[in-house]
Amino acid sequence: MIKRTSFTVFTSVIAALFLREIQTRFGTKKLGYLWAVIDPMVKVIMFSAMRLATGTNMQGIDLPVFLATGILTYNFFSALMTTSMTAFEGNRALFVYRQVKPVDTIFSRFFVEFLVMCATIILFISFGLYFGMDLSVKNFNMVIVAILWLGIFGFALGLLFAVINTFYETFGKIISFISMPLFLLSGMFYTVDSLPPLAQELILYNPVVHFIEMIHGNYFRVLNTDYVDYTYMMWWTVIPLFLGLFFYAKAEKKIIST
């Protein structure tokens, strides 16, 4: 009998949890997998129509593409943060198996959201090519780096929030309450450069704005990344990740037994 390594056990658990998450999230819904695409598509169409109705245009930028890049990446981050927050509670019955650790559920949801985002991006690209939109990218590598970095940031917050939410149920309600203002103040519908100086100063306290600006600035040739503070982004990623891992390590047994 071949003894399995810790890494082999970990990958097997993640694969099983991944399939379970896919089935739980999409398998029982009538629209199923289509809803993951319909939701961002409706948002892009709705906000594009609103911008065009007000006569607002962006010189040298295909507006639907601009909105899609922001909305898709923000949805990825938001879904990571919110679904991870309930990962422990949603999989508590599985913790009776010693191979399954609570943190494994966070990893599985990360991969589910990453897969959903990739599938949605591919479909949006197909639509864009069909309708003749300008999909050219100024710096493809940096766009990928920004998306992955945003994913790590979402994972870090999700892990930290999951630990807190386990012991303080009202915390999840607070996060849900602030999610809508965060959606509107994350720079998906405008650039920082287009705002008045005071609004620029205030909105740049939101770390998500820096990620969206990084994506937009490296995607569109007419935009830049002058307002992106990479040090600020790094601190916002490292500190929640450290705190999440630290509190999780301290509370793992309590999380399992709660």
TrEMBL record:
Residues 31-251 form the ABC transmembrane type-2 domain. It is a multi-pass membrane protein. Keywords: Capsule biogenesis/degradation, Cell membrane, Membrane, Polysaccharide transport, Sugar transport, Transmembrane, Transmembrane helix, Transport. One of its GO terms (biological process) is polysaccharide transport. Pfam families: ABC2_membrane (PF01061). One of its GO terms (cellular component) is ATP-binding cassette (ABC) transporter complex. One of its GO terms (molecular function) is ABC-type transporter activity. It comes from the Bacteria. It is found in: Cell membrane. Its main location: membrane. The chain crosses the membrane at residues 34-53, 65-86, 106-131, 143-164, 170-190, 232-249. Belongs to the ABC-2 integral membrane protein family. PANTHER family: CAPSULE POLYSACCHARIDE EXPORT INNER-MEMBRANE PROTEIN CTRC, INNER MEMBRANE TRANSPORT PERMEASE. This is Transport permease protein.
